[in-house]
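Lab notes, practical 5.
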Amino acid sequence: MSGDGENTSDSLGGAPVDFDRLDAIRDRFDAGDCFSRIDDQPAFAPDRLACMYDQRFYPKQVRAARLEIVWFESGDFSLHYHEEHESGEFDHRWDRHPSDHNTRDHVHPGPDAPTPGNDTSHPVDWRDVLSMVLSEIEDRQRAFWEA
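Output from the prediction step:
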């Protein structure tokens, strides 16, 4: 993911997108088996990595699930988890960015990721942030099968 040499920035972070970090994340995710497809800079979100979860983690009523990731050179980020259900959607977001509605670190909890969200603190290291988010998503996936 090159970023086409542009210094792309997003309204969330105000800083340029860290395409090198997104490359590193994609490489880590490619090494696993959670995602059926990973799209670099998809048309609907050109500053993001869109990671489509393998359908085997979900019951039939969940038609699709994805994790969209944008990371900025400032260390700010937004990770958006989205499920499409037969009867609606589920959204949850983990954010670190300047905000008028929350502290810099916050979560917009599912099922509808409301604004304002909940103030929280996220780990400092990007790998720990990803581990935390993936663990929370895995807990949700497991819960589908424990009912």
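Observations recorded by the TA: The two ends are 40 Å apart (CA to CA). Residues 75 and 96 are 8 Å apart (CA to CA).
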